[in-house]
């Protein structure tokens, strides 16, 4: 029987433990605070940011939301980041991506204080991750690692294939899978839009992570019998539903389920873990900055 992995359940468990970590900090007189910054009027981005704020509320983290007009000059965003960096009461800063075209992503990510960089996208944190000394693991790949661990799926010695090489999902995912230690030691292949004969690569995967953002591009025929399939992709597709859209993953769930031993659905798979691991990094950042020893799940 194919196992349908319940991301909400795994995320609930992590959040429950994080609540105790937040208590420890508050008992020590430290109120964890996460600033989210949105410079976009995209509906999906607005939804994600409000979900992050709701997760903060649930855990007792003080979530402060900042909005910047998408037409404003980039300097307005830089000045806001500088102010948040300088505010000792703010422990975590997340600038929601994507940003408007006139704002250079690299300059933004490099401007955030690396000890407050709860996304783990600052070059210092990327470097630490690659060097095997991660401070903040990027939330989505970290969440995928937690799913594999929770499901008892061993990575050591396995063939892992990641479809996608973005800075926020594909590259850090591949990096975690190839690291020494638990959740790593996999033989890892990274595929992208220029990959020749993608199917030949994905069919070798014991663990397949799909993060291309192309709805249902991975079907059962591209999956090895018995594989674990992790679907990171989320695309809003127009549909006759209350919201006017539905969420579609990169994996054709019905045909993939016939081949996979375990598979994540969309929604209810990786997404909830992304939010849980953002909370994890926010608690970790607070501990680092306040010098309070805090246990993390
Ligand atoms: N569940 C969650 O928590 C999250 C979900 N997402 C979702 O994951 C998906 C990926 O996000 P993100 O990494 O930011 O996206 P990007 O668009 O930044 O990257 C997509 C990657 O997929 C590759 N790709 C695109 N088309 C193909 C193809 N036909 N075959 C092989 N590779 C392909 C691209 O290749 P190339 O580099 O050559 O262009 C690129 O490397 C999106 O659907 C996004 O919404 C993202 C973050 C969190
Ligand atoms: N700086 C930055 N950090 C991010 O972590 C970041 C970002 N920018 N930009 C966009 C992507 C996307 N992302 C998701 C978070 C939660 C769900 C999630 O919880 N999804 C639910 C469903 C959500 C819904 O109903 O729309 C699920 O899959 O079950 C999905 C995607 C974080 N991202």
Automatic annotation (TrEMBL):
One of its GO terms (biological process) is L-histidine biosynthetic process. GO terms for molecular function: methenyltetrahydrofolate cyclohydrolase activity; methylenetetrahydrofolate dehydrogenase (NADP+) activity. It holds the Pfam family THF_DHG_CYH_C. Keywords: Amino-acid biosynthesis, Histidine biosynthesis, Hydrolase, Methionine biosynthesis, Multifunctional enzyme, NADP, One-carbon metabolism, Oxidoreductase, Purine biosynthesis. It catalyses: (6R)-5,10-methylene-5,6,7,8-tetrahydrofolate + NADP(+) = (6R)-5,10-methenyltetrahydrofolate + NADPH; (6R)-5,10-methenyltetrahydrofolate + H2O = (6R)-10-formyltetrahydrofolate + H(+). Residues 5-119 form the Tetrahydrofolate dehydrogenase/cyclohydrolase catalytic domain. Its EC number is 1.5.1.5, 3.5.4.9. Residues 138-286 form the Tetrahydrofolate dehydrogenase/cyclohydrolase NAD(P)-binding domain. Homodimer. Catalyzes the oxidation of 5,10-methylenetetrahydrofolate to 5,10-methenyltetrahydrofolate and then the hydrolysis of 5,10-methenyltetrahydrofolate to 10-formyltetrahydrofolate. Belongs to the tetrahydrofolate dehydrogenase/cyclohydrolase family. NCBIfam families: PRK14167.1. This is Bifunctional protein FolD.
